[in-house]
Amino acid sequence: MDKLMDEERTYLTLDEVHEELLNLLLRFDAFCKEHNLRYSLDSGTLLGAVRHKGFIPWDDDIDLNMPRPDYDRLLKIANYLPTDLCVINASNSNFTGGFTKLCTSNIRAQEPSYDGVMEEMLWIDIFPTDGVPENSELFRKSKKRIQRALKRNEWANINLNYERGARKVIKTIFGWLFRFQNPKSRLLKLIDETIACPGYESAKRVGCFFGAENGLWTLPKSAYEKTVYLEFEGHMLPCMSCWDEFLTDLYGDYMKLPSENDRQTHCLKAWRA
């Protein structure tokens, strides 16, 4: 992300985005320590810690996960966050995902898919980790239902102008139809039903229903809850002890760099508010 300018603002470079994200992460880490909240680096951020000891060079976000009890408590005590920080999710905004964004009002950031739908702020993604059935096929079916509900809610609510060709036509038509089905209410109800069975406390294995569709990972809860500390941009931050199993499930040979064509970002533009 090069430094760009338009008539109204100067966009942050990727290095500047990394600096602001790291600051946001460290503030969240301090908040979690103060309130005894557990979390782990997740997905590309965890991969970055293992492979690069920091950000993946082309990445432009931070991913964390929290055990469902800690995630729910975070939402309950969010009013104790510093005044320039807030949490955004499908319950309190036009965001269409099944997870939460920790945002800073000091930095505006805009993804193409939410342009004109909601004003975004620079964020950290926080994914809840839930108890999952020991039967992997049951988990697969539950996650598929969640993903279908997420897709309906997304197509009904986001800006589809960034799509091109047949994909734009198909998503626009189905999005228009989905709007009549109240997809957000259906999604939130399905989430409540799904995470209750077996429930985090009763489960022996845990996983995430709300990440990427190919992220069909489950882990022993005892190993997930055991914390180790890995270096990230010069700071030692908490990670699940089973990080190798987790990264292998998600990425296979995770130490191998992807081709340049597969180095994806959110294509966001960020600027100081």
What key attributes describe this structure?
Beta Polymerase, domain 2, 38% helix, 10 strands, 8 helices, 273 residues
**Biggest sheet descriptor:** 8 strands, mixed
Q: SS-based structural class?
A: alpha+beta
Order of helices and strands: HEHEHEEEHHHEEHEEHE
Question: What is the 3D form?
Answer: globular
Structure, described:
- There is one protein chain.
- The protein is an alpha+beta fold.
- It has a domain at 14-131 and 217-272: Beta Polymerase, domain 2, CATH 3.30.460.
- It contains eight helices and ten strands.
- Strands 1, 2, 3, 4, 5, 6, 7 and 10 form an eight-stranded mixed beta sheet that branches. Strands 8-9 form a two-stranded antiparallel sheet.
- The protein starts with 13 loop residues before the first helix and ends with a strand.
- Residues 1-5 have low confidence and may be disordered.
